[in-house]
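#onboarding

Welcome to the new folks! Below is a worked example of what a typical request in this channel looks like: someone posts a single protein sequence, and someone else replies with the predicted structure as tokens. Don't worry about understanding the tokens yet, we'll cover that in week two.

Example request:
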Amino acid sequence: MKRPNVLFIMADQLKWSALQMYSEIGIPTPSLERLAAHGVMYRNAVTPHPLCVPARTSIMTGRYPHTTGCRRNETLMPDDETHAFQIWRDAGYTTGLIGKNHCFIDLDAFDVYSDISHGGLPKGDYVGSQPQTKGMEWVRPIEAINKAHEVRARLNENAQSPTIAYAVTDYPLEDYGSNVVTAQTESFLERQAAGDRFGRDESVGLEDRPFALWVSYPDPHEPREAPRQYVDMFPSDEVALPPMRRGEFDEDGGVKHLDDAPYPPSGRVSPAPEVNRVLYAMLGMDDDNEEDVRNLVSVHHAMTRLVDDGIGRILDKLEELGMLNDTIIVFTADHGDFMAEHNMSVKGGVFYDCLTRVPLIVSFPKGDIPSGEIDESMANTLDILPTILELQGLARFEGINDGWSGMASNQSSNDDSTATLREDGKVKSELLRRIQGKPLPTVTDAEPRIAAFSEYGAGGPPVTMSHLEECEKPWGYKTLIETLWGREAQGRRKMVRTVKWKYVTDPMAREAGTGESADPEDELYDLVNDPWELFNVAQDPKNAGVISEMRRLLAEWMIESEDSEPVALPRTIGRSL
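Example response:
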């Protein structure tokens, strides 16, 4: 029996609130709405890490960054990690990656590889950059693609301000990066349907071989550039800007402005941690005029809609080829972007929802999953891989560690731990024990979860305001890049989020003996009364019980995920039992 195809679509740096289906400040995305109408939309999904490489490697392995060691953008997929495409290739799938990589160095698991990123086609000048394609050539002329990326490649040199850069251009529509990815995907699907195996084992004509394809759009990540006809769809004077609060990043937390704030009605507001204030010193748009801010958001909306239209074309192609019903389709983003929330743009090592909360949709028309349903429980993009494996019939996660009798019957032999598949064609239980994500509820029979987690940092020293003073002024995006390595590595920040609350802490930033219910650098947000996270209420004594519960959830998660590799377990409780 043929297993279902897998189409995993990812947008780069797309926050949840950019989409109207999630937020009142978002834009219509008809193709994603169409996908959700035939699947399940997860309203409260978060990334395990709000940075490209750590998020991507975690999604592909189902393991947290503190487990894989991929805590920075300079640390790509380790050689000893088993990832999704190794599993799928060993299961007989035709495998492909079209679009932005920023995850894999070793490409042996891919039959097709076509890499394109924010500045266009790769030049081999950064880790994981592979200029050569594999399995298929670009369907658009390389010269045309390069020409259409000339402005974007040097956009930050011609910025509107130190913090804002955008461009509206008139290149042929088919040569913008997102459309190049879409056209390449359409060609892949046509060739797949015709029995092409892209040079793998010189096998042609095996039409029943399923495919697993990662379509990785490099948009709407900066540099912000979009075609004029798309920007015109979102006039800047009609852009819905998010709420703001005066003094949010003042050293005193902006207490002098609280009289005109609707929340908190009578509580104590804590200052933002220094890491947040350092970021705002670089990215805050206080000195930018509203017109430029609105234009920036307009271009971002245009880039997002270009991705959405591409997804619509891919869905149409699947339907045309008779593949739609047999394909598991997942859409998400690696992480988010401020895009005017907290009066900033881009990203930078903090845990507001605009950076950690992402869209997540799962559809499988032929599978026994609901259509048009919204799941309100907490989810993590780490859960995508185990979910797909269950829907494919390649794994069953329930009962892996449920009792000694189950272990005795399910656990593989000692020399099987590095192999990918069991003899019966399913993923071996020792490999499943390595996966820290869990199948998603609603699309599987897994139980909903009350909390989701994210992290940042590698234990490095803090980047402080004094370090910033050493950088050339005016500060802005260039300063963000100049301080990138230090900020990626600083601290060991952890986030736990429930539907009602978010708590962020960093054990390395604690000052003992304060007598407070929370540490000075902690953050706590009441997501019911303060959904835009404008008021840090960690130091409010009435929230001491909430802090205690959130710390308990963090401790349970850290203990559960403490082993980088699963410890070998006995099959029985004793030698004779």
